[in-house]
Design brief:
The protein has 310 residues and is α/β, with parallel strands linked by helices. Helices cover 42% and strands 20% of the residues. Strands 1, 2, 3, 4, 5, 6, 7, 8 and 9 form a 9-stranded mixed sheet that branches.
Length: 310
């Protein structure tokens, strides 16, 4: 359990923003937080050893609600846990230093978390590139599907989350042994402890993708812009943008792989790959034959005829 700085102040929202070398974007991100219609906020910024002017830009705002902590580089997970220990609010609102939130984001999330008695509420977003140009809308499954499938896929947008501080502190905060996906690990811990999740299916943010940010690296989109935008359009099922960006990618093999992902479906490929690793090819084909006996599985016809597939 992380020791809190003080008892939670009712109604106060602590906006937690880790920063590392974000001088290009942090001013716009912080301005969008200061412009919130929900006024009872504090802004906890943890500078994780930036070598650029990020800290100076934050100081230039001169807003008494901003609390800046400059530390040596220790990674985002430790920065988040340190920031949690400094949060005095009843609620913690996550925000990244390169994203933009709309003025009513916090107000709408507070409304939902109180009305539904939830512990964690998240919103949706549009994807923008490093220049702020629209890429596509973020794909968001239903609330029930998202929470049920957390072990396999994380569709909860971390910088779009607002959560009750005390339940996160009691859960121990973020698992520092997890290198990537510390947010997913936290959601799983909270779900196991009986936390209530709520989806606010409104676009209340712009989530930025560029070659250097963590989400791009996690999705394998740190290559050229055409590849990144193709993958984002695939995730949002935006047909026009997907094929527009796919044509700009010069690697034919990469294009074929992502066409398969588009037509077969990412979830289908994910489950087939998982079953293949777990069962092996023969057991997988036997299982598919039981479910769908009319399928011929032509590439395996000769082997199939020599086996009892019933």
């Amino acid at each position: 359990m992380i020791a809190p700085l003080c008892p939670a102040k009712p109604g106060l929202v602590s906006v937690l923003m880790p920063v590392r070398n974000a001088e290009r974007y942090v001013r716009e991100a912080l301005s969008s937080v200061i412009a919130q219609t929900y006024a009872d906020i504090e802004i906890i910024i943890v500078d994780d050893g930036s070598s650029d002017a990020s800290a100076e830009i934050v100081r230039s705002f001169g807003d008494a609600r901003i609390k800046l902590f400059c530390r040596s580089h220790q990674g985002i997970t430790k920065s988040l846990n340190f920031g949690l220990s400094q949060c005095a609010g009843e609620f913690v609102c996550r925000m990244d230093a390169d994203d933009i939130c709309f003025p009513d984001r916090i107000a709408r999330q507070i409304e939902v978390i109180r009305r539904r008695g939830a512990d964690v509420v998240w919103c949706t977003a549009d994807f923008i590139d490093e220049n702020g140009d629209m890429i596509c809308r973020r794909y968001q499954p239903s609330e029930h599907f998202t929470v049920r499938m957390l072990h396999h896929r994380n569709h909860i947008m971390h910088p779009g989350v607002l959560m009750c501080r005390d339940i996160v502190l009691k859960a121990g905060g973020y698992d520092e042994s997890v290198v990537n996906g510390q947010d997913q690990a936290l959601w799983l811990t909270l779900r196991a402890r009986g936390a209530a999740f709520a989806l606010l299916k409104e676009k209340l943010m712009l989530q930025r993708f560029h070659a250097g940010n963590i989400t791009s690296l996690r999705f394998g989109m740190q290559g050229d812009a055409a590849r990144r935008n193709t993958v984002l359009s695939l995730k949002s099922r935006d047909t026009e943008r997907f094929f527009y960006y796919l044509r700009q990618v010069g690697d034919r093999g990469w294009q074929v792989r992502h066409l398969l992902r588009w037509f077969i479906g990412e979830d289908t490929i994910f489950w087939l790959r998982t079953m293949l690793r777990t069962l092996g090819i023969e057991s997988l084909l036997r299982a598919l034959r039981l479910v769908s006996p009319q399928v011929s599985y032509a590439p395996f016809r000769e082997k199939r005829d020599k086996k009892d597939w019933r």
